[in-house]
Amino acid sequence: MNNVQGLLTASVISIQNSCFTYPACQNCFSRLILDSRRFNCLKCGCTGEAKDASYRYRLSLKIADTNDLFDITVFGSCLDPYFGVTAENLQRYIQDFNQLSGETNTESSTRALVQAVETCFIGKRFIFGV
């Protein structure tokens, strides 16, 4: 949805989720259903091999302007500059890190990423297209 109807200058109060990427359909950007070998889009019916699934950013935030609190979600490549890589590459780095470190519990890498995102966003002011 690229139809910006207004701009809102607000500060980020908190991060609402700890999973910043999701497997996304290339046709409609909906979340894909992944199993060990295949992916399926419930919205448009697109299918393929799980290893070929693309990833996209999804960052849910609680923000505040001078008068109100808002819950917003920022999607897509506009987050690439903040993360320094595409969602696809970030997902790959996380998977590689967990595999190389022998982590079966991904909680420590998730916690480190959440802390980094909180440091980058919380307390900072941004202009949001709404």
TrEMBL record:
One of its GO terms (biological process) is negative regulation of intrinsic apoptotic signaling pathway in response to DNA damage. It comes from Mohoua ochrocephala. The lineage of its organism: Eukaryota, Metazoa, Chordata, Craniata, Vertebrata. GO terms for cellular component: cytoplasm; nucleus. This is DDIAS protein. PANTHER family: DNA DAMAGE-INDUCED APOPTOSIS SUPPRESSOR PROTEIN, DNA DAMAGE-INDUCIBLE APOPTOSIS SUPPRESSOR PROTEIN DDIAS. Gene3D superfamilies: Nucleic acid-binding proteins. It comes from the Eukaryota. InterPro entries: DDIAS (IPR043522), NA-bd_OB-fold (IPR012340), Rep_factor-A_C (IPR013955). Residues 9-95 form the Replication factor A C-terminal domain.
